[in-house]
Amino acid sequence: MKKHPKICSACLLGTNCRYDGRNKTSHAVINLSKKEILIPVCPEQLGGLATPREPAEQTDQEVFTQSGKDVTADFVKGAKEVLKLAKLLGVKEAILKQKSPSCGSGMIYDGTFSGRIIKGNGVTAKLLKKTEFG
C-alpha cells in the first residue's frame, strides 16, 4: 500500500516561520521526515502574514494580534491554502504545531495573551478536521 504524504507545520521541520522568526524543531518530526514525505506548510505565511509578526491568539471564531488587530481573514486564507495543497497532493494526515492559533489541535491559547491554554483547535486544524481533505 502506497504511503500518502503528510502536511506538516514547517516550524516543526526547522523552518524559521513562527511569529517570533524562530522555529520549533521537533527531532521526532525530523526523524519521521527521513522515512515519510512531509509537506512543510506555514498557514500564517500562506495567509499573507510576514515573519516575524506580532503574536496572535484565537478568541471564539476570530484571531487578534496582541495589539488588537483582527487577522482572522489572514488565518482563514492560510487555512484554505493548506486545504488546497492537501487535496492536490492526496494528503490524508497532518502533523501540526500544538497550541498555535492556526495549527493547534485540541489545545490552544485562550486569546488573553496570558499563557493560559484551553480546549480548542486553531483555524487550520479546525478546517482540516471538518473537511474530508483526502
Automatic annotation (TrEMBL):
It comes from the Bacteria. This is DUF523 domain-containing protein. The lineage of its organism: Bacteria, Candidatus Kerfeldiibacteriota. PANTHER family: HYPOTHETICAL CYTOSOLIC PROTEIN, INNER MEMBRANE PROTEIN. InterPro entries: 2-thiour_desulf.
